[in-house]
## 1
Amino acid sequence: MPKSTLIKKTPLMEQYEQETGNLAIWKGEVSKNFKKWKKKKKQEDIKQQKVELLTQSKIEKKKMKREIREDKVADKDYDHLIVVENLHKTYLLGTTAVAALRGVDLTIDTGDFIDIMGPSGSGKTTLLNLIGGLDAPTRGKIFLEGRNISMLSDNSLAEIRRERIGFVFQFYNLLPQMTAMENVMVPLHFSGKLSRRGKRKKALDLLRLVGLDERAHHTPSELSGGEQQRVAIARAFANDPAICVLDEPTGDLDSKTGVMVLNLLRDLNKRGATFIAVSHDAAVSEFATRVFHMRDGKLTHEGKIGGLKETEIMQLKRRQETEINKEKCKCKIFQYLFANQGRVEIPVSEIKNSIPNSIVMNLPEHFNDILQELIEENNFFGRIEGEILILN
Ligand SMILES: Nc1ncnc2c1ncn2[C@@H]1O[C@H](COP(=O)(O)OP(=O)(O)OP(=O)(O)O)[C@@H](O)[C@H]1O
Ligand SMILES: [Mg+2]
């Protein structure tokens, strides 16, 4: 019996034979070439393991470093909801650099409704995008709830955007094939905290908050611009954000619808929501609690300085208009009473209906008070009893 049959072939020998085409056992002996191959293979394997270990440890180290860095900047006892420090953003356009932000400092507290006004190209959207974690600054820091978000990795930043920030843009950005409710549910899917039933309930609650629960099953094309923007606001609040950022929230709406949306924002703000909005629309500043003015990448000053003057003039104009309307109203009442001489009891509603709506609608005072004033001024012998004017 040949010797070779006595030596059992190992899997390694089989691998050697397959790879080289040589026999591992020759004339009953383990071949010298196989022994050399085996030694070399062992060394190569050790080398490969070392490389793998090194790569693994490098990844681990990097991860650890990032976690330590992120942990370090997470200050739980923060003074302001948001602190922006010396923020710079420079865009590179080919070979030219565009300095969009040139040192912005800002603090935002919970419950603020901030409006940033400024001419086109002054850097408003850039500032919002940085605060909302959509882009990273070139220089400077942004602390959100005590955490420096300007240093975070892309993944952590995406998580912050998803969990802590609500966004509202000029063109609503609703998904056209989805209903209002499904649109509001989108962020809830991503956070994955609620059951399907929970998500539907929350979406419906949010739509109720913006007065659109009855339109929950309508798609955006079946809603007006103002309604679509209200859905977008409901969606922004889906994950109970720390702050909601709004870029030109009324930019695509007519002034009346814009004011309706702003009223909703003010209402939400009064219930504790925090907003930062940028807008060309001066009406936004009327609803904001703090107004900043921006120019050439810098915040120039805070305050409704320009706005206050405007408001005073507007208030004066409104007061004058009210006075004129009141006089017009009295004149019409007088004409009506003159035409109805001889009657003893006249329903107030009848007198009211005889006056053009445009006059009555623009009078904040109670109609009966104006009627009473007229009676006193003209020494009529009459009195108002309930809803009836009784003349003597
Ligand atoms: N992605 C970009 N790449 C290059 N330059 C940019 C980019 N985004 C903005 N800019 C430039 O940065 C400056 C500030 O732009 P930004 O959009 O922030 O202004 P804005 O105040 O929002 O203007 P608008 O009122 O017109 O919306 C502008 O000069 C603009 O051209
Ligand atoms: Mg802009």
Note: The radius of gyration is 37 Å.
## 2
Amino acid sequence: MSKKIAVIVGSLRKGSYSRQIAKNMLGLFPKGYEAEIVEIGQLPFFNQDWEADLETPKEVAEFRKQIGGFDAMLFVIPEYNRSISGVLKNALDVASRPYGQSIWNGKPAAIVSQSTGVISGFGANHHLRQILTFLNMPTLQQPEAYIAKSPDLLDDKGKLAEGTLKFLQTVVDAFVELIKRY
Ligand SMILES: Cc1cc2nc3c(=O)[nH]c(=O)nc-3n(C[C@H](O)[C@H](O)[C@H](O)COP(=O)(O)O)c2cc1C
């Protein structure tokens, strides 16, 4: 059976460069691996009362079920104020609870960060690594993927420059090797 990869984009913006990069990456997975983008913008803000006297919203229950059907996660993210976006943090939080029932547990992950400037999402990339460590998600160490000046690397149809695609292929290849180990 094919391995299923959830691709999570850390931006809701219509013209998001993160999303464009993520779309380019869908085709880089080999036979036997199916990658698809999983949406996170519909999720309400996490409320711990869902674990007590408030009913869990249906979007949250559906998201947990959906994530549970994937074998691994690829995060393609922007940097917001030197960290990850709020919408991504919320998605990580909602599927991490109830305590002891985190849907993320044990799923291998890879991170690609990008920015319009030269910092290339380094801060966001490493803040996400900290969270994934606690969520017990074995995360690809090398190659690290920091994409700087994204708009310069995408054409008007959203296709990535050949050199960047080649580099991201090495990231996907290493990620596939990591997934095989779990
Ligand atoms: C609220 C906000 C904070 C940002 N903070 C950073 C930052 O800390 N570092 C950085 O390199 N770019 C920062 N940017 C610029 C983003 O890298 C740029 O907007 C990027 O295109 C966002 O990703 P997207 O195209 O996927 O929406 C910030 C943008 C926004 C909207």
Note: The helical segments are 17-26, 58-68, 86-94, 122-134, 150-153, 162-180.
